Amino acid sequence: MKKNVLNVIAPVGALLAAMLLIQMPADSQAPATKGGKGKIDPTAPAGTDRADPAAGAAKGKAKGKGGPSGPIPKTAAGITDFSGIWNGGGPVGDIRQGLAPGEELPLLPAAKALMDSRLSQDDPELNCLPTGVPRIAPYPWRIVQTPTHVFFLYEGNIHTYRQIFIDGRKFPPDEEIDPTWFGYSIGRIEGNTMIVETKGYNDKFWFDFRGTPHTELMTTVERYTRTDYGNLTVETTITDPGAYSKPFTIRFQAQLRPGEELMEYICQENNQDVEHVKGPASLE
């Protein structure tokens, strides 16, 4: 009798296992975790295990390996084409990592006090809100380039997007610009560099995990230089008299990820991070 029961249980168990395998999301949809940390590797190709990045990526360097070499692509109009899936290009853990050696953030006292008072669980990015500029979540992002607009499509958080007008328009009057997470951006392409000027930011997003602040007075000038087929240098000059004593410039690298696609990432769904993150804003 026991033998018969086992004979029944075995095929039923195999059937259940098969059903579970069918229902389990693919790696490209539900990245595994390593060591119980639940961190995602931003440098792993889509469709593979992106779990538990190296300390550099987790702490905000997000530089990874260099992208593939080759000639810089051009559009049908003969201008540099920035389109593609990229990874990196901005601060994740600490904006200071983008400063030139020996430089320090010129924080005003009030901004420093605000930064020191911030708690990790209050990070807007941790709460599924946009990262703003120049922060980049440790996930790939896509540039879509048209003759009149450039769009940045972000995999991380809430699948946010950013639009940059390259149609030659001027900024509207300041009073007509509503403060937003990504501001109002106007760009132009000069050689292999796309220059983006932005104003009209809100003061809600943080620059990094450390809680580095800014105000609504902030403006930015970004320079995206495609140095070859697979590498992009991103240099951002930040001017914010409300939080900093002078403008400062940060520089990060992004790498092309040919053959990849953006994965579905639903930050709001079952977000279990906030209640477990305690203490002052930091890289840990």
Question: Concise description?
Answer:
With 284 residues, the chain is of the alpha+beta class.
Q: How large, in whole angstroms, is the Cα Rg?
A: 22 Å
Number of helices: 3
Q: Please tell me what the overall shape is.
A: globular
Mean pLDDT: 80
Strand order of the largest sheet: 1-2-3-4-5-6-7-8-9
Helix percent band: 10-25%
Number of strands: 9
Elements, N to C (H/E): HHEHEEEEEEEE
Number of domains as seen in the coordinates: 1
| Biggest sheet overview | 9 strands, mixed, barrel
- The poorly predicted ranges are 1-63
Share of residues in strands: 15-25%
Task: Output the structural class.
Answer: alpha+beta
State the distance separating the first and last CA atoms. 57 Å
What does this molecule look like?
- This protein is an alpha+beta fold.
- It has one domain.
- It has helices at residues 2-23, 55-58, 109-117; strands spanning 84-88, 141-145, 149-154, 161-165, 184-190, 193-199, 219-228, 231-239, 248-256.
- It has a nine-stranded mixed beta barrel with strand order 1-2-3-4-5-6-7-8-9.
- It is globular, with a radius of gyration of 22 Å.
- The model is unreliable at 1-63 (pLDDT under 50).
Main attributes of the structure:
globular, 9 strands, 284 residues, alpha+beta, 22% strand, 12% helix
Write the layout of secondary structure elements.
Layout: H1 2-23, H2 55-58, E1 84-88, H3 109-117, E2 141-145, E3 149-154, E4 161-165, E5 184-190, E6 193-199, E7 219-228, E8 231-239, E9 248-256
Parallel strand pairs: 4-5
Antiparallel strand pairs: 1-2, 1-9, 2-3, 3-4, 5-6, 6-7, 7-8, 8-9
